[in-house]
Amino acid sequence: MIGVSLGAHISGFVGKAYSGKIGRITGLDPAGPLFSGKEATERLDHTDAQFVDVIHTDINALGYRKPLGNIDFYPNGGTYQPGCPQTILGGSQYLKCKHQRSVFLFISSLEQKCNITAFLCDSYVDYRNGKCTNCDVLNPCPTLGYYADKWKNHLIEKNPPVTTAYFDTSDKEPFCMYHYFVDIITWNKNSRRGFIRIQIADNTGNIAESKIDSDAAVFQQYRQAKILAGFYLDFYSISKITLTFSTNNVVGPKYKLRILQMRIRSLSDAKRLHLCRYDFILLENIETSFRPIPCYENDE
Hints:
Layout: E1 2-4, H1 6-17, E2 25-28, E3 52-55, E4 71-75, H2 92-111, E5 119-120, H3 124-128, H4 152-156, E6 163-167, E7 178-186, E8 192-201, E9 207-209, E10 217-219, E11 224-231, E12 240-246, E13 256-266, E14 275-283, E15 288-290, E16 293-294
Parallel strand pairs: 1-2, 2-3, 3-4, 4-6
Antiparallel strand pairs: 5-6, 7-11, 7-13, 8-9, 8-10, 8-12, 12-15, 13-14, 14-16
């Protein structure tokens, strides 16, 4: 069963009537008003079917905030949805766009123009700060939508059998954002806090800039700083990377980072080659571009 808004809870009631024997229930932004705070018997619950997956896109208004299924997906944190009006000047779309986004995300998964990868995580903040990117060939991250049940056995074996997943999307169909994980090891003796703006380019001149704004990273000598990047375009072959370091300080001295190693790896395609660059300097607020090379074997 697939239920939208109120229909998600109705699907749960049907599941309860069949003692949870229904194979799967998908809840698309289950309704929040009148259901928030209710007991499991009065709303959708992970026990209502053999597998329950939920997509939350409007948790601050029309949708339900807390997890309800075996896996609960929170695109863009479940609140702001790119491409939706942010003020009442957007008319009726301001009221319904975020709530309906769950439906269009699910439809996108049926069309399979691209796979939307999600990351198992306790919070959107942790995801944004690169703390939940342990996806690899042996332990792939779940995919949003129709094919989420490929991870059913792994998810329902948890105790309790529930988990949350976070990710970001683009602003229009098919909504895919291609995630990369960037780790940087610096030589500076003094710690530095700052931000890294990341751009990638391919051989044809296409350029994409990361759309993920994470908290300031801490760069410490010989320590790995982890940065999550997300692009609206995906380049199978990256020919150039541009990094810009900034502390966001308006006054005061400008700093530089001495980079021992920078590595970038695709989280959307775990089989893709890891790319590196070694021994270079980033001057604050100055773009530094370079051609990446395959990482040394002992860096993998």
